[in-house]
Description:
- Chain A: This is Amino acid/amide ABC transporter membrane protein 1 (HAAT family).
- Chain A: One of its GO terms (biological process) is amino acid transport.
- Chain A: GO terms for molecular function: transmembrane transporter activity.
- Chain A: The chain crosses the membrane at residues 18-37, 66-83, 95-113, 119-138, 150-172, 192-216, 248-271, 283-307, 313-333.
- Chain A: It is found in: Cell inner membrane.
- Chain A is mainly α and 345 residues long.
- Chain A is 74% helix and 2% strand.
- Chain A is built from 14 helices and two strands, in the order αααααααββααααααα.
- By secondary structure, chain B is an alpha/beta fold.
- Chain B folds into three domains: 23-247, no CATH class; 350-430 and 520-530 and 551-602, Rossmann fold; 441-518, no CATH class.
- Chain B is 54% helix and 13% strand.
- Chain B contains 23 helices and 16 strands.
- Chain B has a six-stranded mixed β-sheet with strand order 12-13-14-9-15-16, sandwiched between helices.
- The longest helix of chain B is centred in the middle third of the chain and has 27 residues, at 212-238.
Amino acid sequence: MTFDIAILLTQDGLTNGALYALLALALVLVFAVTRVIFIPQGDFVVLGALTLASLQAGHLPPTLYLLLALGGAVGLIDAVACLRSGRAHAVGRVLLIELGYPLALWALCHWLLPLSQSLWLHALLTLAIVVPLGPSLYRLVFQPLAQSSVLVLLIAAIAVHFALVGLNLLGFGPEGVRTAAFSDAVFEIGSMFIASQNLWIVLVSAVLIVALYLFFERALYGKALLATAFNRTGARLVGISPDLAGRLSFAVAALVGTVAGILMGPITTLYYDSGFLIGLKGFVGAIVGGLASYPLAAGGALLVGLLESGSAFYASAFKEVIVFTLIIPVLLWRSLKSHDRGSEE
Amino acid sequence: MKVETLVVPAATAPARRRWGLPLALLLIAVLPLLLPQFQVTLFNYIGLSSLVCMGLVLLTGIGGLTSFGQAAFVGIAAYLSAWLGTAYGVSPWLTLPLALIVTALTAWSGSLLTLRLSGHYLPLGTLAWGISVYYLFGNLEFLGGHGGLSGIPSLELFGFELREPSSWFWLIWSIVLLSVLAIRHLLDSRPGRAIRALKGGVVMAESCGVDTRHYKTAIFILAALLAALSGWLYAHMQRFVNPTPFGIHAGIEYLFMIVVGGAGYVWGALLGAALITLLKTQLQDWLPLLFGQSGNFEGIVFGVLIIVVLLCARDGLWPALCRWWPWRRAAGITVVPPAEPLPLQPKPARGEPLLDVAAARKEFGGLVAVRDMDFRIAAGEIVGLLGPNGAGKSTMFNLISGVLDATSGEIRFRGERIDQLPSREILARGIGRTFQHVRLIPEMSVLENVAIGAHSRLQVGIGAAMLRLDREAEARLRHEAARQIERVGLAEDMHRPAGSLSLGQQRIVEIARALATDPLLLLLDEPAAGLRHLEKQALAEVLDRLRGEGMSVLIVEHDMDFVMNLVDRLVVMEFGQKLAEGLPLEIQNNPAVLEAYLGGVE
């Protein structure tokens, strides 16, 4: 391997690793707060990229229908809950929020799409469409199951993943998509070429990680989430609603996934079903951190990125085999570390 | 000792079984002649999936070990047989044992690694393994890459080549039927109860003498073997293999099948396999028409279906279906017939030293939970270990029962050091225990729960249980369990599910289970905690009876009134140390004890 290739592979590995790190952080957060192993995390990446692509092509993204459908379902359930608990006056407000938001967004897209081709506008619309799907999914699927075992929640998460992949195929078709790059500039430093998209990815990932850090350290809602992650019962006793914490953590996960999708779109061709493997790679990182430690998870994800680009070069056919076989010794190490004869789940 | 017949009303009707088997045989014989060919083929696929799902029910639904990797085992057997058949012309009847052996070895070596994974790490590990194996199949040249292998030889049976779907139907469904019988036999046996006990937690199972590691490995291999059988049949029926049906999505689909059908039930595996397979073929026809484009849209329906099942019928459709079945619930009489008693340990003479705790100490980091405790128990004595909450009683209890290892000091049982032994070894030396938080398997009957206690007193292998060669041993185990249930006065409730009993009765069932281990010393961990007044009275009666029989008991309790009339001697702990020791009356008037309990009398 020449020096140039090494640089290239490292660059590639770090770029993907930064994205996996973002996903790993979201997975750790969701698991800590809700105990859900969030397999659909990668599907949000794909939803983000495909939604952006269809906006860039000047279409109304089919994700809007999904948003409307989920909003309608949540509205219906909440409205029934309101009626049952005798709060009939709240029904109108619930329906207005759950149905009004997607409809307003629809109108907005209709109006803005022909007017502007700005990447920033499209990215913002993508976030506005995809991110609310996270909390809606939590409300519909995971909130009613909140008391179940980790395994039941895992099966539910996989079921959601299956449904999302099918819906992606239905909405976006089987073709792979690449979105327009943020900029085509390539920097040359010595003999190294660095694509500006790669810089964007690392930069935005870093900014998002810092933003999340500040959110947890400074903002009240962030602290509430941390408190729930630390001790569910305790958080409940001091007045933090576990439902709210769950929805909030799913919103953060959806946000992170969508941003990762927007960033990844220009460098990787994404298909309706690409999310599974992307999410799982974030997962390998998260598991290095024992689904608990944020820095370890981020480090693990970077490692996955580097390992992936390295094995892509040496044994490209076995890339996935190598990355996913890595998980088993890591899992072993984690569970040996947590093992105690007296401890049980 | 009473060895008369115990006759108790039960909720299950034994008469049901008599026509079940002939009916199943008749169905298998006749169905392929009545149904059109494509439906017979469909049933063949259902049968193949059922085999995998039955293994998964055993592993996941009953044993509590979730695997997403079963499709990989199907694939290993299918590919092995396909490759040997196409490349070297090896007969399928030779590749069958080979495929089974290779799969068993793979599962065994995999289990060395994955079964150490705790909690949710295991399913994630199997997920990763499933993905790896799929990509391996797709990228190995000699396995035909993603294109796969074709031209696999068909099966020949008694000189006939199996070509028609109906002949495959007979073969596949005979194998399915045999597997159902074998697994149902297994579950209703000594090793089967041990497997069902795994869900109650390692600590409970080990404290009853169950080698949990052994049984986890066994069900892992059994599930893999059933998957391999299915894979071998698939390869020779299809005569073509490619990686797709062995990928991670197939592995997840098998899990979906048992979740829908009922993960804890053998019939749930068949129901789930049938429902999902039928649904899938229907959806593959209808959804593309509905959506006006082709593609695998059934994932949407499956995903939503699973979520609805999880939300509305958590245990799957089979138990829900059973509730609708009118003639299953006919009341019958279940008899526990007399049998030869189980071997007993030689009992120590009254007054012989039994337990000797000397300077036992347990530190958790900087915290000293138990600080140099000393006390002794002689045979036939009932000793209470008393103390306010947080005094270190439970830690002391865990040191004796082997759940925790002592940091320093010695604990001896009949002169032999036990402070570094695991709980299964401690049980083997004659110390039985109960749990503060009741650990019974709620859906198993009281009799079965208590029979888990007798686990280590007889040996019955998994193979013998499957072939029903264990009936004599089984009768002895059941009779012993029934005897212990009578001893604690719960004979009326013997056949009820343990979960339907009150907390007080469940505590007593735990005592019966501990008695079934044939203990020389019984450890009771806060038996009165959370009980109502009448329940406490019933418990006290049971303990009084045991005392009359000369059983040696250590009761850990913080309820002073409860133990006062029961015990011969009391040891009081506070802040991890021994505060006082003596007769109940002395302790009752000991100023230091009063201070600790009442915060001082002002």
